[in-house]
Design a protein that fits this description.
By secondary structure, the chain is of the alpha/beta class. The chain contains 19 helices and nine strands.
Length: 434
């Protein structure tokens, strides 16, 4: 009877966190998962504020260990302290919405398979008004197993031990939301300095600059302003990464950003983008970046082709950070480019098709609303206006000429696609890892 009762008991979920000086954001993280977790294990690595006391007050089990300049060591220490059947990793400041928490608990109770490790979406808020949030699929939920271990001082990963243990991979219905503080300049720079030191220490200890370490170091140098060194490291990362791998794509993204500040290198930037597309011909963000580079060169015809390829064939790699609204952005950029060529009917079709697939997209609603107004489709515009936030309805005079549309395209493509690859990689160093 005892065995039967245990088999019918719901899986025990342990939420694991490693923290240091996180009193300002810790409560939000813990509160978001308290109702679904059997235990919350917090490993403090040397806080000087009230983080341990606050975690205890919020019901967490708090342990302490010295910081050893090794994220894997800290995470593996924490793994040894948990007692649940399943582990969910959160970083301080991350949270889960009440709806996602309930769905995750239902998933664990009814569908969880102990032979599977699950990835979830991790979302970072937009850095600027009007920009898109970003997301990346990461393994954060997995069954406890004595042989599962993180590896790497920085950008630590479970991938090696997941393969050795033989766990399959699948998605779980959950989205982890990151805190906006990661965009704070001081935190951004401090993280780059820390990551560079950890990557260098691991490379010295192992005698090997792996693609992972080259990526970390290259992105850190880029954030710290040494673009020449960043280019060298990111090129090396791309060269030694497996063909068509996520690491290779991430290296290409980062490489493109290193040319952005020097106009004399923009031709080299375009060459790097074209080289990247040879390996990843359908990558949506690279295609959008190519379209933007063509706009800068007054090649609207080639920009349309790039944007059209992104809309029709574009793909994303879930395990590499990308814009949450990348598909909507591709449709908007193509629509704007077509309008600049006075091809309004085609622009309408592009935006209407995209909106049918994503009916809640404010970005698409706004662009299609503007186009309907321009074309005098009052009833269609009114129907969309009822679905838009009031702040989105402030419009200026219609821009009817080809020249004006072209200027609007340049402005909007710069704001929306954002000189896209540089925009993506500028956020990436602060999103990946911790």
């Amino acid at each position: 009877m005892k065995i039967l009762a245990e088999s019918l008991a719901r899986p025990r979920l342990s939420v694991a966190m490693i923290v240091r000086d996180e009193q300002d954001v810790l409560a939000e993280s813990i509160e978001s998962i308290r109702k679904i977790a059997e235990e919350i294990v917090v490993l403090d690595t040397g806080s000087t504020d009230r983080t341990p006391e606050l975690a205890t007050q919020l019901g967490a089990i708090v342990h302490r260990t010295p910081w050893e300049n090794d994220f894997s060591a800290a995470r593996n220490h924490c793994l040894r302290l948990i007692t649940g059947n399943w582990v969910l990793w959160l970083d301080a400041g991350e949270r889960i919405s009440p709806q996602d928490a309930a769905e995750l608990r239902h998933f664990l109770d009814n569908q969880a398979n102990p032979s599977i490790a699950h990835s979830v979406w991790v979302e970072s808020p937009p850095r600027d008004e009007g920009a898109s949030a970003e997301q990346c699929s990461q393994v954060r939920l997995f069954p406890t197993h004595m042989d599962l271990r993180f590896s790497g001082r920085v950008r630590e990963t479970l991938s090696v031990s997941l393969q050795s243990v033989g766990l399959q991979a699948a998605e779980a219905p959950c989205r982890i939301l990151r805190h906006p503080r990661q965009h704070e300049p001081q935190r951004f720079l401090a993280k780059a300095q820390r990551d560079l030191a950890l990557a260098s220490a691991e490379a010295e200890a192992t005698g090997n600059w792996s693609p992972r370490l080259l990526l970390v170091a290259g992105q850190a140098h880029s954030v710290l302003g040494d673009q020449d060194q960043a280019r060298e490291l990111l090129r090396s990362a791309a060269e030694i990464s497996m063909p068509r791998s996520a690491q290779r794509l991430e290296a290409f993204y980062g490489l493109l950003t290193t040319f952005d500040e020097d106009p004399d290198l923009h031709a080299s930037q375009l060459t790097a983008c074209l080289d990247s597309l040879e390996d990843f011909p359908f990558d949506m963000q690279l295609l959008l970046a190519l379209g933007n580079f063509m706009l800068v060169r007054d090649r609207l015809d080639l920009a349309i082709r790039a944007f059209e390829a992104a809309v029709r064939f574009g793909r994303i790699t879930p395990t590499v950070w990308h814009l949450c609204e990348v598909r909507e952005i591709a449709a908007v950029c193509l629509g704007l480019a077509l309008q600049a060529r006075q091809r309004d009917d085609e622009a309408c079709t592009v935006l209407e098709t995209a909106l049918a697939a994503r009916p809640d997209s404010v970005r698409l609603l706004h662009r299609l609303y503007d186009l309907y107004r321009k074309r005098g489709k009052a009833s269609e515009a009114l129907a969309l206006a009822e679905r838009l936030p009031s702040a989105q309805l402030e419009v200026g005079a219609d821009q009817g000429s080809a020249w004006e549309n072209r200027q609007q395209l340049r402005f909007d493509a710069g704001q929306i696609s954002g000189n896209l690859a540089p925009h993506v990689a500028a956020l990436k160093p602060q999103q990946v890892g911790h």
